[in-house]
Amino acid sequence: MFDVLIKNANLPDGREGIDIGINGDKIVAVDQRIEAEAGETIEASGRLVTPPFVDPHFHMDATLSLGLPRMNISGTLLEGIALWGELRPTLTREALVERALRYCDLAVAQGLLAIRSHVDTSDPALVTAEALIEVREKVAPYIDLQLVAFPQDGYYRAPGGVDSLNRALDMGLDIVGGIPHFERTMADGAASVAALCKIAADRGLPVDMHCDETDDPMSRHIETLAAETVRYGLQGRVAGSHLVSMHSMDNYYVSKLIPLMLEAEIDVIPNPLINIMLQGRHDTYPKRRGMTRVRELMEAGLNVSLGQDCVMDPWYSMGSGDMLEVGHMAIHVAQMAGIEDKKKIFAALTVNSAKTMGLEGYGLEKGCNADLVILQARDPLEALRLKANRLVVMRRGKVIARSAPRFSELKLEGRPTAVNAADYAPLRPDEI
């Protein structure tokens, strides 16, 4: 007897016709043709069942603030930072909490149940930290929310930035952040990396640093981050986000850099939507793509996750909380269109990002948390192609969101009466 039995599911690893038995908040059985009674039976009908989507890089304190106090006319990173600087003094805890909770509603509907958010600590009032800590508590039943103490204006560059970051960590933020390429000099940037890694080591915390979000090939703070990770024994606890300058670096230098990153066990978090929107702005043509070397980093054995970064804020006027949109863009920008490539991209939205965030009980094996999503697609490749509809979202064995299957009615003589885009999956060899 199960509380919930999901029938005839396809799993991301290629297994098909799988039943998943759930008791309480745990998966207790994963096998073909499970014959048992259940309080609720959900028919997957050969659709993909996946662990929840995970966003390891987001800015929840800024989300849904598009147009406040004005629009980013140039669409550039620097104007976005300046615009956030105008908005920040007007922020209230209540407004921050309301926008963040609205975004979390959207995330749940998209099957996104774990988020790591950077929290700006540059304003000594730390209203952002207070608000996001409140949000973390409110959404805990349905979203794993991690908070990064992030000195948006620079750890050394912002007045009182050192003290503000330390106070934010004392308040209960989870992770040490940084932005070395935004310090006044390369030397200050390198010094900030060393100081922030020492704070993490002393406090026993992870590190997640905005690193080299610039087209400048000489911005090499990821090298410093990897070296300081080894120096302080932080291997496996440090993430480098963006790493955009790697797309412009000399290949010989990168051939030395990647092994150093491997030694440090750095997690890599590109943000495809934002990276290609904000980078290459000083180029005419040819114009650089603005995303780090995803294929090369994956092939080297580094854990590569994909983040969304922004949704409708001063930096990015687009976004929908859909991690499949992130993966869809990554396939195009990284030119990873092969079958195995797409499987790796899907993993970067799920299991890789769960590893980056250190999520316990994540997965679809016996004993894992009963957190899962049923998609209107038969496999990861089709889910990415279609940016597939989320039919069922489950958290700890409870359905928390449902959507009706998406199809269109046709009124054409002699043609079918309905079209379901998920029916257009390419034929497999055994189906030809």
TrEMBL record:
<dbReference type="GO" id="GO:0046872">
    <property type="term" value="F:metal ion binding"/>
</dbReference>
<dbReference type="InterPro" id="IPR052349">
    <property type="entry name" value="Metallo-hydrolase_Enzymes"/>
</dbReference>
<keyword id="KW-0479">Metal-binding</keyword>
<dbReference type="GO" id="GO:0035888">
    <property type="term" value="F:isoguanine deaminase activity"/>
</dbReference>
<dbReference type="Pfam" id="PF07969">
    <property type="entry name" value="Amidohydro_3"/>
</dbReference>
<feature type="domain" description="Amidohydrolase 3">
    <location>
        <begin position="40"/>
        <end position="389"/>
    </location>
</feature>
<dbReference type="GO" id="GO:0004131">
    <property type="term" value="F:cytosine deaminase activity"/>
</dbReference>
<dbReference type="InterPro" id="IPR013108">
    <property type="entry name" value="Amidohydro_3"/>
</dbReference>
<dbReference type="GO" id="GO:0006209">
    <property type="term" value="P:cytosine catabolic process"/>
</dbReference>
<protein>
    <submittedName>
        <fullName>Cytosine deaminase</fullName>
    </submittedName>
</protein>
<keyword id="KW-0378">Hydrolase</keyword>
<dbReference type="InterPro" id="IPR032466">
    <property type="entry name" value="Metal_Hydrolase"/>
</dbReference>
<dbReference type="InterPro" id="IPR011059">
    <property type="entry name" value="Metal-dep_hydrolase_composite"/>
</dbReference>
